[in-house]
Write a structure and sequence with these properties.
Length: 202
């Protein structure tokens, strides 16, 4: 895991925020951040606050972050479950090359000091992260091995390999009409559980 790019992150929108947070907490993840809008203002509701402290307030959560080892899982409120993006940790040089290739593909690139997002034609985005402090525990052996995606775009894997400049991707694709994140697999553990959003943790 000393090489980049490596997959470290996935994000989705869900109406099942409290249930999903509790599910990941039971798998050994630590809730490190909760940001939501209350009375028109974004505020922090981070631990040690618990859901009992704010459950009955009308908070629109933008992000809840759960971390363990080299894995970062984030979620925000949505009326239905929607997969948003995968995150890859890359070097600065790799980021430049990836963004150049994205622009050649005419894919939208949005970048700031903390992260870069690339909009793919596959109904999800790719996040590029270069800051080591975005990884919860860089020394940990716990990391994402693979994810399973469904898509009706059969060129997806080939094009993403070209984008990232790699010969292999930690992504398995099943051809289906609807795009969704179907499964994730972590190193060194076998969970065999499904989270509240229908995502299977192998």
């Amino acid at each position: 895991m000393d090489k980049t790019p490596f997959l470290f992150h996935y994000h989705f929108w869900t109406p099942y925020l409290e249930e999903t947070e509790e599910f990941y907490r039971q798998q050994g993840f630590e809730v490190t951040q909760r940001i939501g809008k209350l009375d028109g203002t974004f505020q922090s509701f981070n631990p040690p606050l618990t859901w009992d402290d704010f459950r009955h307030q009308n908070i629109l959560f933008r992000i809840i972050e759960c971390q363990k080892g080299k894995v970062n899982v984030t979620l925000g409120y949505g009326k239905k479950v929607v997969f948003d993006h995968l995150g890859f940790y890359v070097s600065e040089d790799e980021k430049v090359g990836i963004c150049q290739r994205a622009e050649m593909f005419k894919w939208k690139v949005e970048s700031n000091d903390r992260r870069t997002f690339i909009s793919t034609p596959y109904q999800f985005r790719i996040e590029l992260q270069t800051h080591e402090d975005a990884i919860y525990d860089m020394e940990s052996d716990f990391h994402l091995l693979r994810v399973g995606l469904s898509s009706n775009k059969e060129d997806m894997i080939t094009k993403l390999k070209e984008l990232l400049g790699v010969d292999a991707l930690p992504i398995d694709m099943t051809v289906k009409e609807k795009m969704r994140l179907e499964s994730v697999e972590f190193c060194g553990t076998s969970l065999g559980k499904t989270d509240p959003n229908g995502l299977f943790l192998k």
